[in-house]
Structure formats: structure tokens, C-alpha cells
From TrEMBL, chain A:
Belongs to the binding-protein-dependent transport system permease family. It is found in: Cell membrane. GO terms for biological process: transmembrane transport. The lineage of its organism: Bacteria, Bacillati, Bacillota, Bacilli, Bacillales. This is Putative aldouronate transport system permease protein. Residues 75-276 form the ABC transmembrane type-1 domain. The keyword Cytoplasm does not apply. One of its GO terms (cellular component) is plasma membrane. The keyword Cell membrane applies. It is a multi-pass membrane protein. The chain crosses the membrane at residues 12-36, 82-100, 112-131, 143-164, 185-210, 262-279. InterPro entries: MetI-like, MetI-like_sf. Keywords: Cell membrane, Membrane, Transmembrane, Transmembrane helix, Transport.
Automatic annotation (TrEMBL), chain B:
It comes from the Bacteria. It is a multi-pass membrane protein. It holds the Pfam family BPD_transp_1. The keyword Cell membrane applies. This is Putative aldouronate transport system permease protein. PROSITE patterns: ABC_TM1. Its main location: membrane. Belongs to the binding-protein-dependent transport system permease family.
């Protein structure tokens, strides 16, 4: 595609460049601002003097943060949650996807099982009945309430199932005839072949657990058990208040610990911002493979 | 289907018994998934009986009194029922429309950029908010739109009065829709870009030889080329017209903006878990689920008819 740049093309390129620059900045600037506020003095932050560079630079907020028990306690809950939840999820997704990827000729009940799982993608009990079930199974206020109910992500499972089905069948014919069982077939042949798909699902699962906050509000009675994002939501959200007046809302803006709050939000975002650029290709692959099938 | 042809000789060599034994581990592998799904996905579905009861937690699903459709009558006669329904629809529909259009325009603009590394940088930046939780994003939004935040400083520098974005029912919906597009646009943009890459480059060369300019090429080649994915995304989104974005609204809203931003999910949450009206809240949830499942079925059927899309 070689065309000599016509004057109209040059104009277009300039406007296009400006537009795309603005859009690109929209993705990054809010977080730079957040960082700048957290590194400014509280008075400058409250007065709204900070834009993209710290005003009256200070580490104060981060020094306070390093002594903030609630922050680290909830961080620890989050770490546990990500570990336990991810291991559990991956195990369930893999163990479920494999049998359902067998042909109906080999595994007659496959179709019934698939429907059993897929129905739950389209219909659910909703917030209140789910809460009641989790309460009656005794998970309230334990970390298990955050990792067990959603452990089998049907969407991920179907994605992996489709991936398994598209791998060549000659291998497992041979392996089965050699007397290998399904488990060794799954772990020795299918998993190694499916590493790209597994990596994508793994990343989405980790991020999902790290980002989840509402189940913490719902199922944890004690703030001691809040994961990080849930704890952060209590710093931010006003919706738990019974009533709020205009004055109150206005005064929230001049709330004393503004830089501390900002620092905590920034730290909550930092792990993802730090690793995301390097892992982006997996996400892109996962999205294009997972949602656009011919 | 070549599979059946291959298994036939195998059955001849080895008697049937080996095959029957071999499906047992498959059932075994499914047990954990089946148990979790039964309890935590099907359990709540059976729990929906509470929508037809006067549910008392201490009496449970079996002991609570049956009241038929009383809870539904109650919610349909609630003073803000129609307002909440309308809020849900308008917020969800606007999110869908802008959520499809903005990334489309971005993808088309991005396609005109020649340098690969620039494209990748833009993509990385645009895609970032998608991976952050609504908690973080809500924190950022509160900060940016606060009374003395950057946006209001900008407005003040132009000589206007500051605007209380988060407490003004006229502005609030715009914030919801705008921030949702901001969070989600990277995702759809990547889908569009992937579709654009799939277009046969010969078409563009042929068009150029015929004297078609860039604009004509976009209209006659790029857009028709990605029409299937646009139709697919639009169709599938039909199923979410009652999902206005629960987490986002719950974090951002406050009583000052209930009138324009209270949606089904947030009302169900407040009714059920804050006011403890379990049964009416469950009834409201059931109402939403039933409508949604009908819409989702229609949308998947249409997606299958239009673009041959299947999930499995």
C-alpha cells in the first residue's frame, strides 16, 4: 500500500494522530494523576493543586501506608485467595473440560453433562438465593466463600474444551491403545499441547480473583476477612451509608486522609499495571480465540 | 467423523469391555465440577422458591409460608418500579451502543496508523483499564470528578462554576456510560482489529488500482469485512439489556442520584441484604433472570442464524 501522501491525507494523519494520542492518554493519565496525588502533601492534594506531577513532594502517604494494619491484612487475604482460588479453579476447569471434550462415540453421556454445565451460564438463582445457599453451607466469613462457589468458570471450561477438541486425535488413539489411562492422557499429552490456552485461562483467573470485591462485602461479616479490593471499596464507596446530604458529599472531597487513600488505591492497582504490559499478548490471544470462533 | 472409522477396527481387536472400563474415569473426573455446580449454581435456582414464599431464614426454604405471586404483585406496585426498570434499560442500552461504536471508530482509526509499535503502544494503554477492578476505577473516577478535582479545575479555568458530577442526577448517567466505555473499549477494539487483520489484503490493492481512496476502502472493504463480528457482538449484547453494571453503580452511586441511576440489581441488593426483604428481592431477581434468559436465548439463536456462532 504505497500512496503518495496527498494534502488531505496529511491533514487526516494529523487529526488522527491527535485523536489517538488523546485516547491513549485517557488510559494512562488518570493513574499518573493518582500517583501524583499520593506523592503530594495532603494540603496540596485536598486543595486540588495536583495534576500530573506531585506538589510538595513527600513519601508521607506511603510511610503511613506501611504501618496500616488493615491494608496488609486484606492484602494477605487477597494473596491467599488468589493462590487457593486459582489452584482450585484450574483443577476444576481442566478436570471438567477433558471428559467433555471426548467424542460422543467414546463418552455417550457427554451431551447431557455439557448441558448440565452450560445451563448455568444462562440462568442463575440471583443474588439473594445464592447468598442463602452460601450461608446455609456454612461458608460465610471464611475464605472458602470467595473461592468455592465460583470455582468452575463454565466459560473458561468451554474455551478449554473447544481447545482440547481441536487437537489431533491420532495421539490419544495411540496412547489409549498402549494402555494409558485418561488421567495420563490428560496430563501427559493434552495439557502440554494446550499450554497457551491454559496460560490465558490462568491469567484471567488470577486477575479475576485479585479484582473481585463484591463477594467480600457480601459474604464476609468481619472486615478482618476482607480481601484487598473489598477493603479498598470501603474507602471509596458511599453506598453503604444510610443517607447522605449535599454538604456531606461536598465535605468528602476535603476528607483528611486523601493522599493515604489515593496511595492505597494506587497500590491496589500496581500489581496489575506492573505485569500487564508483559502479558498482554496472552490476553489478546485469549480474547480472540475465546470469543471469535468461526 | 473419521474417528468412528478408526475405532471400529480397534473394537474388533480388543473386546468391548476395555471401552466400558475406560469411560468410568471420565465420570470420576466430572464429580468435583458436578458437585460444585449442583450446590452453588443449581442450589440457588431451587432457592428461588423463596420468591413465592414469605421467606424467614430461620424456617428455611421448606418451612416458610407459601404466598403465591404476592411478592410479584408487591414489586410491580412499588412506586419506583418503572423508574428503576427504565434506568436499567436506558443505562444498559446506551452502554451497549457506545461500547460497540467507540471501539469500532478507534479500530478504524488505528488501522490507518502505519507504524506497528505505535499501534501496540496505543493498544496497551487503551486496554489497561479493562484489567483493573471497578474498585480501583471508582477510586480514580471519584478523584477526577470531585469538586476540586482536575476536571473541575479545568472548568474553573474556563470561568465556569464547578459541577458536582457525582451528586448530580443529570451528569451521573453520563459518568456511568463514559466510564464503562473507558473500561471496556480495549476489549472490543481488539476483536475488531483481529477481524480487520483477517481481511484479504488483495481487496485493498484491487480497490486502489480502481482508484478508490482510503475513505471508499473503509466503506466498501473494511466495514463489510468486519460486519459479521459487529453483528455478532450486537446480537449477543441483547442478552444484557437488563445488566446495567451492578458493581460499577454500587460503587459510584449515592441517594442523590437514585432517581437516574438506581437499577434492578442495586435495588435488589438494598431490598434483600440491607432491608432484609428477602422474598420480594428474590422475586425481583427472578423477574430479571426470566426476562434475561429469554433475551439471551433469542440473541444466541439469532447469532447462530446470522453468523453461525456457537459456544460449543
Amino acid at each position: 500500500m504505497h500512496i503518495k501522501p496527498s494534502p488531505s491525507r496529511v491533514v487526516f494523519n494529523i487529526i488522527n494522530g491527535i485523536l489517538l494520542t488523546i485516547v491513549t492518554l485517557l488510559g494512562v493519565i488518570p493513574f499518573i494523576h493518582l500517583l501524583a496525588v499520593s506523592l503530594s502533601s495532603n494540603s496540596a492534594a485536598v486543595a486540588g493543586q495536583v495534576s500530573l506531577w506531585p506538589v510538595e513532594f513527600t513519601w508521607d502517604a506511603y510511610i503511613y501506608l506501611s504501618q496500616k494494619v488493615e491494608f496488609f491484612r486484606s492484602l494477605w487475604v487477597s494473596v491467599q485467595r488468589v493462590f487457593i482460588g486459582t489452584i482450585l479453579s484450574m483443577l476444576l476447569v481442566i478436570l471438567t473440560a477433558y471428559p467433555l471434550s471426548r467424542e460422543t462415540t467414546v463418552f455417550k453421556q457427554r451431551t447431557a453433562y455439557v448441558w448440565f454445565f452450560v445451563i448455568t451460564m444462562f440462568f442463575g438463582g440471583g443474588l439473594i438465593p445464592t447468598y442463602m445457599v452460601i450461608r446455609s453451607t456454612g461458608l460465610l466469613d471464611t475464605i472458602w466463600a470467595l473461592v468455592i462457589p465460583g470455582a468452575l468458570n463454565v466459560w473458561n471450561m468451554v474455551m478449554l474444551l473447544n481447545f482440547f477438541r481441536n487437537t489431533p486425535k491420532d495421539l490419544d488413539e495411540a496412547a489409549l491403545m498402549d494402555g494409558a489411562g485418561h488421567l495420563s492422557l490428560l496430563f501427559r499429552i493434552y495439557l502440554p499441547i494446550s499450554l497457551p490456552a491454559i496460560a490465558t485461562i490462568l491469567l484471567f483467573t488470577i486477575i479475576g480473583h485479585w479484582n473481585a470485591w463484591f463477594d467480600g462485602i457480601l459474604y464476609m461479616n468481619s472486615p478482618d476477612n476482607y480481601p484487598l479490593q473489598t477493603y479498598l471499596s470501603t474507602l471509596i464507596s458511599t453506598s453503604n451509608r444510610e443517607s447522605i446530604s449535599v454538604d456531606e458529599l461536598a465535605s468528602m472531597a476535603s476528607y483528611g486522609e486523601k493522599t493515604l487513600r489515593t496511595a492505597q488505591i494506587f497500590m491496589g492497582a500496581l500489581p496489575i499495571m506492573a505485569v500487564y504490559p508483559f502479558l498482554q499478548q496472552y490476553f489478546v490471544k485469549g480474547i480472540t480465540v475465546g470469543s471469535v470462533k468461526g | 467423523m473419521s474417528n468412528t472409522a478408526q475405532t471400529q477396527p480397534a473394537t474388533v481387536v480388543k473386546p468391548r469391555s476395555s471401552k466400558r472400563v475406560s469411560t468410568f474415569p471420565l465420570h470420576l473426573m466430572l464429580i468435583p465440577g458436578v458437585i460444585v455446580t449442583l450446590i452453588y449454581a443449581y442450589g440457588p435456582m431451587f432457592g428461588l422458591v423463596m420468591a413465592f414464599q414469605k421467606y424467614v431464614p430461620t424456617k428455611g426454604f421448606l418451612g416458610s409460608k407459601w404466598v403465591g405471586f404476592k411478592n410479584f404483585e408487591y414489586i410491580f406496585h412499588m412506586p419506583d418500579f418503572y423508574q428503576v426498570l427504565w434506568n436499567t434499560l436506558i443505562i444498559a442500552v446506551l452502554k451497549i451502543i457506545f461500547g460497540l461504536l467507540v471501539p469500532l471508530i478507534l479500530a478504524l482509526l488505528l488501522q490507518e496508523v502505519a507504524k506497528n509499535w505505535i499501534v501496540r503502544t496505543i493498544q496497551t494503554s487503551v486496554f489497561l483499564p479493562y484489567f483493573l477492578s471497578w474498585t480501583i476505577l471508582a477510586g480514580v473516577i471519584f478523584e477526577i470528578f470531585s469538586l476540586n478535582g482536575p476536571v473541575n479545575s479545568l472548568i474553573a479555568s474556563m470561568g465556569s462554576d464547578p459541577i458536582m458530577f457525582m451528586g448530580d442526577k443529570n451528569w451521573f448517567r453520563g459518568i456511568l456510560i463514559g466510564s464503562d466505555v473507558w473500561k471496556g473499549m480495549g476489549y472490543n477494539m481488539i476483536l475488531y482489529l483481529a477481524a480487520i487483520i483477517g481481511i484479504n489484503p488483495n481487496l485493498y490493492e484491487a480497490a486502489e488500482i480502481d482508484g478508490a481512496g482510503r475513505w471508499k476502502q473503509v466503506i466498501h472493504i473494511t466495514l463489510p469485512g468486519i460486519a459479521p463480528i459487529i453483528v455478532l457482538l450486537a446480537t449477543l449484547s441483547l442478552g444484557s439489556v437488563l445488566n446495567a453494571g451492578f458493581e460499577q453503580i454500587l460503587l459510584l452511586y449515592n441517594p442523590l442520584v437514585y432517581e437516574s441511576a438506581d437499577v434492578i440489581d442495586t435495588l435488589v441488593y438494598r431490598m434483600g441484604l440491607i432491608d432484609q426483604q428477602f422474598s420480594p428481592a428474590a422475586a425481583f431477581g427472578l423477574f430479571k433472570s426470566v426476562v434475561s434468559v429469554v433475551l439471551v436465548s433469542i440473541s444466541y439463536y439469532m447469532a447462530y442464524r446470522f453468523t453461525n456462532y456457537r459456544i460449543f
